[in-house]
Automatic annotation (TrEMBL):
Lineage top rank: taxon: Bacteria
Domain spans labelled DUF397: 8-59
Natural source organism: Saccharopolyspora dendranthemae
Name under which the protein is recorded: Uncharacterized protein DUF397
Length: 65
């Protein structure tokens, strides 16, 4: 797990303020993904190519979200 503790975590402007959102932090070599409801539980890390492929899949409807 990469140390992204000093990074600025952001969430979508479309998210509700109920604390049940996905937050993302970016560095040049890694993207951190965590749940806003429990940010101390840890995060997932993806490299930029993995994150881009995931976003492309979401946008194309590949995942049942």
């Amino acid at each position: 797990m990469s140390d992204l503790s000093d990074m600025t975590w952001k969430r979508s402007s479309r998210s509700a303020h109920a604390g049940q959102c996905v937050e993302v932090a970016r560095t040049p070599g890694a993207i951190g993904i965590r749940e806003s409801k429990n940010p101390r539980a840890g995060h997932l890390t993806a490299n930029p190519a993995q994150w881009s492929a995931f976003l492309d899949g979401v946008k194309s409807g590949r995942y049942d979200l």
